[in-house]
């Protein structure tokens, strides 16, 4: 996010927040507040849980394992619930690489990804991702861990919508 600093104007002069305007008994002393307005940039900040999930799913669908790997924890696991109610085997990073090798490539502008952050604290975040083509959509519940100034995906549990 970009920050834009704004101050109130008095008679065409910008005064610092702590400045008093006065001197003449007919004038009031006014403390001018400074406001920070957050302006959205294109996309999410690179250190947000949303950015990590977006990087993961877009690169998964584009079959770019190396770029996707940047947002996966070393302890990454992935497991899902099949349509018949059975659980899939737990997958690791290497299993995910193998899975990606045979899939169709889908460009980001053709993906229909809906990313919703459900919780964030200093160490963990949870995100819901709904993705996939119409008629074959699935939901992923994603747990992320804070690593340095960014986020890494630790666990994914998915089911069909």
Order of helices and strands: EEEEHHEHEEEE
Biggest sheet layout: 5 strands, mixed
Label the structural class.
Answer: alpha+beta
Largest beta sheet: what is the strand line-up? 5-9-8-7-6
Which SSEs are present, and which pair or pack?
Layout: E1 2-7, E2 9-10, E3 13-14, E4 34-39, H1 49-61, H2 65-69, E5 72-81, H3 93-101, E6 114-120, E7 124-131, E8 138-147, E9 150-160
Parallel strand pairs: 5-9
Antiparallel strand pairs: 1-4, 2-3, 6-7, 7-8, 8-9
Keywords:
5-stranded mixed beta sheet; two-stranded antiparallel sheet; 3 helices; globular; disordered N terminus; 9 strands; 161 residues; alpha+beta
Describe the structure.
It is a single chain. A hairpin with a 6-residue loop joins β7 (124-131) and β8 (138-147). The chain starts with a strand and ends with a strand. The longest helix has 13 residues, at 49-61. Mean pLDDT is 82; it is low at 1-20 and 37-41. The chain has three helices and nine strands; from the N terminus they run ββββααβαββββ. The chain is of the alpha+beta class. The strands form three sheets. The protein has a five-stranded mixed sheet with strand order 5-9-8-7-6, with helices on one face.
């Amino acid at each position: 996010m970009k920050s834009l600093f704004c101050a109130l104007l008095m008679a065409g002069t910008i005064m610092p927040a702590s400045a008093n305007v006065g001197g003449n008994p007919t004038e009031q002393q006014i403390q001018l507040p400074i406001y920070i307005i957050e302006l959205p940039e294109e996309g999410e900040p690179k250190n947000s849980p949303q950015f990590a999930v977006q990087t993961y799913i877009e690169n998964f669908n584009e079959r770019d394992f190396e770029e996707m790997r940047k947002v996966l924890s070393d302890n990454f696991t992935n497991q899902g619930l099949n349509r018949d109610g059975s659980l899939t085997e737990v997958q690791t990073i290497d299993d995910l690489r193998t899975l990606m090798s045979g899939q169709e490539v889908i460009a980001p502008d053709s993906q229909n990804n809906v990313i919703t952050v459900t919780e964030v604290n200093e160490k963990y975040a949870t995100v819901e991702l709904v993705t996939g083509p119409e008629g074959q959509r699935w939901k992923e519940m994603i747990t992320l861990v804070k690593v340095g100034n960014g986020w890494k995906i630790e666990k994914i549990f998915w089911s069909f919508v």
